[in-house]
Amino acid sequence: MNHETEVFFGLLVVFAAAQIGAEVAQRLRLPALVGEIAAGCVIGPSVLDWVHVTEPLEMLSGLGAVLLLFSVGLENCIGDLRKVGGSATLVGVLGVIVPFVLGSAWAKWSGFDTPKALFIAAAFVATSAGVTARVLQELGVLDRTFSRIILGAAVIDDILAMLLLGVVSAIQSGGAIDVTHLLIVLGQAIAFIILIAWAGTHIMRRSSPILDAPINPFSALTLSLALCLALADAASYLGLAAIIGAFLAGLIAAETRQRETLSLQLQPILAFLVPFFFVVTGSQVDLAGLSELSTLGALAGITLLAVIGKLLGCGLGAWSLGRKSALIVGVGMVPRGDVGIIVASLGQHAGIINNETYTLLIAMVLLTTVVAPPLLSLILSREAA
Amino acid sequence: MNHETEVFFGLLVVFAAAQIGAEVAQRLRLPALVGEIAAGCVIGPSVLDWVHVTEPLEMLSGLGAVLLLFSVGLENCIGDLRKVGGSATLVGVLGVIVPFVLGSAWAKWSGFDTPKALFIAAAFVATSAGVTARVLQELGVLDRTFSRIILGAAVIDDILAMLLLGVVSAIQSGGAIDVTHLLIVLGQAIAFIILIAWAGTHIMRRSSPILDAPINPFSALTLSLALCLALADAASYLGLAAIIGAFLAGLIAAETRQRETLSLQLQPILAFLVPFFFVVTGSQVDLAGLSELSTLGALAGITLLAVIGKLLGCGLGAWSLGRKSALIVGVGMVPRGDVGIIVASLGQHAGIINNETYTLLIAMVLLTTVVAPPLLSLILSREAA
């Protein structure tokens, strides 16, 4: 096979697997993404080994995640998010502290020294907004208060996780913690978010008339997509997750009068690209590394710990909303994402953790991702009934 | 910059440049793709050097071309194409012979020995259906007879070019031409096209009722996209251009009752991905290599030869349609594409041609691509007036 044939074959396998997985999941009344992640597990290296995550596939997966969060931002509005700012901050902060404490306790108990234990605990922290946002979107509850709190908390959570990673990396490398540097990084990130949210909204409200006389029916769409790529890149440059930038771009674009059109035109693009994100995520689960019973036990243990950490921390933060909503927020924050995987990869490359611990952490991150969506849809469907 | 930041930055630069280029071109009443290709030249290595064609970008560019030809197929139908089969074959065959003869004459005259001259001439042959199809699409004339002849001829042209490349490569490597192997390759390609066109159409007409009860509003879209990827990959596997497979997939999908819906839902995806194809194409023009006057003269010469070759060959083939349509078909077949670039690259790697000839051939291919669209829209707008 020449290179082009190979690249298209990879795309085809991933895309087709996603369609089959989504179809099966929806017939079982589960969110489509659960089927897509499961399909990824099956075609990934640990089962069928039909697909390897090459650079082009990784890029499509990243693009899928970015566009997904853009569309989530588009269905929200800054005013509504600001209303839940207090609760979201509380949820975000407690949702970082509790898993971090539980994670480091487990790592200490497993025999790691304190610097290593703190490093490992960092993998317990960061919520993946992408997965939960998609579940909430599929269930049509993005405009509910608990959804807004989850999305706001995910932004806070991401800032804190980035900060934490800086601290534990510094401790690990034995160097003194450069507080000034960390404060600058933190300041930049917060300034970026506030600036974009504030200035962007005002500019967008004014520029709306310009977009009203477009040169072609997709001018508003392509302009917003350029904005989305720009803010995703800026966020990534500042050390935040790219999807946070995309989410902000969506929030801003939602202030224009073209919101409805944008939302409609975005749907087919999402239908094409988002599945790549979930299948690639699923394909990274190394089931082979988990074949031993003792490893499975350890995995069950740390996954439970990771779930309890977010349930407790975030549930506590959202307690004022009532038990039901607190439970939804807690479960909604359970899926771990990119940051957990990045921490584990960093640790493995630096020789801080061995292959077994690496596989455990990656599997934990992905299990939280697989477990949360069905739980969330169960709780929400009961509420509806 | 970390890797993610860099990848998104590349996407952003290409996408933003495309929007600006398209806007400028449309204000000058030129097809948007002319502006996109020009924008690619400007941000490419030879001027601003803002973008390098990495693997992810190349993949998005390929995906853009594939989806574009899928949409062109969707706007056609096999029955109408079959009606122009005879003329299209004549245009395709003459459009390969005349440029090949002119190209080898030029190469002989330039001092290359016969095997090398035949190899170089192969770069003069293959039409890029993508560029012309987009121009015809933008001008809204895809349903005219000359458009159908151009599209049909492009398929024939692609088969012949593939065959020719096999022959000249064999001559070049000094080996005997393996006629059996060539016939097998040719037979496979033709069988593939006929099988897909015939069986696909019949299956699609039957499966339409299944698609009528979809599980979600994008089932028909995602199924067609999977079909498009599958046929593009199959075509590439058989040595044809991937876009020929995508075109066939579009033709088949056009037979379903969801044609209108598909066409509508595809538009935003095209608006997002097709610009990557044209900008990446433009970014490959190495203007720096063409700074010397003698080189510029040679370039003007071979480009003229390449244009005249197609005008004569294809125009002659379409003569029965009248002078006007013959001219449109001739100009429409002028843009050279991937195959020309592939031949030049093969020749350079194998040491058959030197860097200067390589740059000349690449520049010729791209110039034909830049020259044809404005000419075509000029001729067509006069016709409308």
Automatic annotation (TrEMBL), chains A, B:
Molecular function terms, GO-annotated: antiporter activity
Pfam families: Na_H_Exchanger
Gene Ontology CC entries for this record: membrane
InterPro entries (alphabetical): Cation/H_exchanger_TM, Na+/solute_symporter_sf
Localization annotation: Membrane
Membrane topology: Multi-pass membrane protein
Protein name, as recorded: Kef-type K+ transport system, membrane component
Organism annotation: Methylomicrobium album BG8
